[in-house]
Amino acid sequence: MKAPLSWILDLVDVPAGTTTEEITDRLTLTGLKLEAIVSPGREITGPLVIGRVLTMEPEPQKNGKTINWCTVDVGDANGTGEPQGIVCGAHNFAPGDLVVTVLPGGVLPGGFEIGARKTYGHLSAGMICSARELGLGEDHDGIIVLPPDAGEPGQDARPVLGLDEETIEFEVNPDRAYALSLRGIAREVLVSVEGASGFRDPAVRDTPAANDQGHPVVVEDAEGCPVFVARRVDGFDPAAPTPDFMVQRITAAGMRPISLAVDVTNYVMLETGRPIHGYDADRLRGAIVVRRAREGEKLTTLDGTARTLDPGDLVVTDDSGIIGLGGVMGGETTEISDTTTSVLVEAAHWDAVSMFRTGRRHKITSEAGKRNERGVDPTICEAAADRVVELLVEHGGGTAHPGVTVVGTPPAMPVVEVAGDLAARVSGMSITEEQSVECLRAVGCEVSGSGILSVTPPPWRPDLTDAQDFSEEVIRLVGYDKVPSVLPTPPSGRGLTRAQQLRRRVGRTLAGEGYVEVVTFPFVGEADLDALGLPADDPRRDLLRLSNPLNAEAAFMTSTLLPGLLRTAGKNVGHGTTDVAIFETATVTLPHHAGPAPILPVDRRPSEAELEALDAALPAQPLHLALVGTGDAVSGGWWGEARPVSWADAVEAVRAVAAALGLEVSASAVELAPWHPGRCAELSVDGEVVGHAGEVHPTVCQAFGLPKRTVAAEVDLDLLIARAVHLRSAPTFSSYPVAKEDVALVVDATVPAADVEAALREGAGELLESIRLFDVYTGDQVGEGRKSLAYALRFRALDRTLKEGEAAAARDAAVALAAERTGAVQRA
Amino acid sequence: MSGPNTDYDPVEVTPLKADQVEAMREAALAAIADAADLDALKQVRLDHAGDRSPLALANREIGALPPQARKEAGQRVGQARGAVNQALAARQAVLEAEHEERMLAEETVDVSLPTTRRRRGGRHPLTLQSELIADLFVAMGYEVAEGPVVEAEWLNFDALNLGPDHPARTMQDTFWTEPADDHVVLRTQTSPVQARTMLTRKPPIYVVCPGRVFRTDEYDATHSPMFHQVEGLVVDEGITMAHLKGTLDHFASQLFGDGITTRFRPSYFPFTEPSAEVDVLCFVCRNVEPQSCRTCRGEGWIEWGGCGVVNPRVLVACGVDPEVYSGFAFGMGIDRSFMFRHDLEDLRPLFEGDVRFSSAFGTEI
Fold first, then answer.
1. Most exposed among A378, A381, A679, B111, judged by the fewest C-beta atoms under 10 Å?
2. Is the pLDDT of residue B13 over 60?
């Protein structure tokens, strides 16, 4: 809300010498937050004075234009008292007119510096200004011609133009609809600024009594429209200009002046907060009827949009049909135009919820709707209509029709019981009941009783419904800045949960492994999944769609972190970071399609069954961990060659995470997009699949702008954390001598090393301390389609030194089982 | 093996004369002193202290002497041998030290060579900021509560006193999911976690809830469709705004420095009543000559978040008896806090994933 200071001070007095900042500081502290203080003249510096045109000589130019060579009396403002010679391109003035003159040394909005310069064969010393040049509007058809009584040549022109006017912009919270009016702001000044007094309520005025001579109005839905007031002005001059003060104030408040009739309704809305609608009375047909719309009815609103109405919409109709969307926007057929001479003024109170719904349904935001949906004082319809009539008559030359239509009565405000000590209990301050009563009365409440107060809020405060609402009114007037600072004493906490601790451990482990954490948006499109190469039946293609995505290409919540990570890795490579290792932990969304989620009551705690239904309707959202590596894992340098990342780095990173959780991961081959079909590991813990890792398919690499051999992994971190070992038993180990045995086994190239190792372990029995694969060989010596796996086995007993031959026997048993299980042949 | 004792005549016993023993000793000591390295010394040891060295041979002769001469000769030869052995040991030590020194000198490397073979990892600064904040509250006895990002409309709005027709719903531009009548949203705030906490725990409740939230804001330097919030909730007997102020003052001083306090301004949130905006004293200028301060842009205070006393309607919907308990709640942007704490003017680097950004913060902030 933008409020010109002069307008505020028309309605309330502040002690002499109170600065604008003092006023806004107080209002900010009591809840009307200052956004900005603006002044139209703030960008204008230097001499801007009233001038009287003494002479003007039109001089046609070669370019077809005619300029005027003028002499202008600017008094002593130019230091000489001599007339100032100025070239002017405008023609809407004559000698003797008072004009606005900026002299050399002045600066106009936009940093436009004025000097004396040679132009069209003259030395032009200054400029005669248009409204646009001064930042006062868009009018550039001619220069500003001041009224003859505006002042004397040489006087500062700023006060005359309202350039000194300060406008205060406030941030108005949704519960403070009353502050969307000068009336409300002035009232806040009254209660907030020390010494403020003399509030002149613009909505308190003598209004003519209702009679039956007015325009007939029938309200069929009294709940939707509790009050409807209609007044009429005839003989109105549609060409009458809007007075300057009104144009300035409407403009300062952020609205566009249109015509006197429209400007007056807006002016009164700004002044009182009550939206007003004006109809061209000659275009109305018969009685006005207010009702809900019927299914399928249509209306073209005055923004030119044809709308299909909803049965929830409140409409204003006459014999011709629907003529307006009540309280939100009028219709085209009865719109005030530049030929309108009779105006029917509507000041009606509308149900706020209906207003909100209609505005949202039709996506209409209007100054009227903004106020109506937040709640307006229902008692001021007659006063507001009367004020409009007064201004139309005064400035438009019309006459007030004697008819006064008033349908309905304002709803009564509820009486709320408020404990006298509530404000003290809520705030922790020592606020007495007397103080509370005083504050409540200051904001307009009626208060009676003691101990338990009976409080009736003023009609402009529909937001005050609960006892606690009234405590806020008291506390804000006492002052939020006076609330003491006291630390509560919580009971002993249990610290982070185990899962929370482990998640941190996972992040630290990966950072230790050289991975950098990133945060990406979870939005994806089908093209992203195509880029991953996911087949049509891949479960990851089942996505939760957003109704209103910011970007139609990314309209879904992702089921996998890989698109975001691969894209991010690609961007890094694009920025010249060729060696990239990144990770992300975030939830993914896996729909159940089990909705809808119920809307439960709020006047009690929902039952367990109701709460379960809520959760059941939500998609599964497991926490995933994904990582991507590309470029070199170890850089080259004086120590030797670089080592590019390989599929094994991705598997190892997951193993490192698992190890941090006390878990061992086993890997087996699987074909799964987006990985290389021969280089993807399915990762399991105790037989349960937790994720996948390996080299990314070259086509996928290309799709994400990544080099071939990029690697990636994605695992379900919730699964890993759920399995994390909590209390590990302390290890025991042998101090007896170790016996070492190496074996080299030749198997088919397709036999997984993990199977060979598992057989060796099992066959070696309990004397086996460790086993390590130290070489893998393929080549002529083992034959086509075969590979040799060389293992170092270490044997040791906990309680004794092994006897001669014991280790060898265990080794032979291991080899025998490997041979049986995997067809392994010991290499000679 | 050859030695200097070529004139040895076993028949004569003259070699045991004092001057001869003395000469052997002098010869040995001179040779030891002349040994230039460990190899030379090894030869000297053989020549002058070995089994066939003059002194060793002389020692053997002692037995052939008349008994009355044995004692004197024995002493003389023994002293000479002792002196030679001592000299050998001393020279050995000196030469070994010299050798080691030379070896170490030869092994000198350029320690200024680069040593980073593997990339440094790092954690995301928003993760670190979230953990830092969580830890501050855990230290006070709070616990960290969590909830889903894709959330039921009822928990995100209705339970928090934001009914379907509440004007404030339009304050938070919400992502809705399909089908539209499923009443499922991307949470616009971490407040549904507060509701979940009250629905599942009995007071006293002291929790913070950090997490991701979503609004339909176009992505630019100061807006992001996804950002991070931390909210706090306390429900206990006798909780007041003063406790809220005390908690936020403590939070501010822990996060931004000793003496940094907060300021409340009346505001409006449906889930709290009374409600306040929280400003934090600018930790750079401390509101002393703020005009030139870049951090607070001349205000002296920085808008930090919202807070208030939990609206009794919220307590009722979440099964907490407002006659017995009261509470406070607050919420701050983690991203925003990070931005002004770390002098970041454009939030987009937080979500662009450039490794140069996260790496700069390492693993703790």
1. B111
2. no
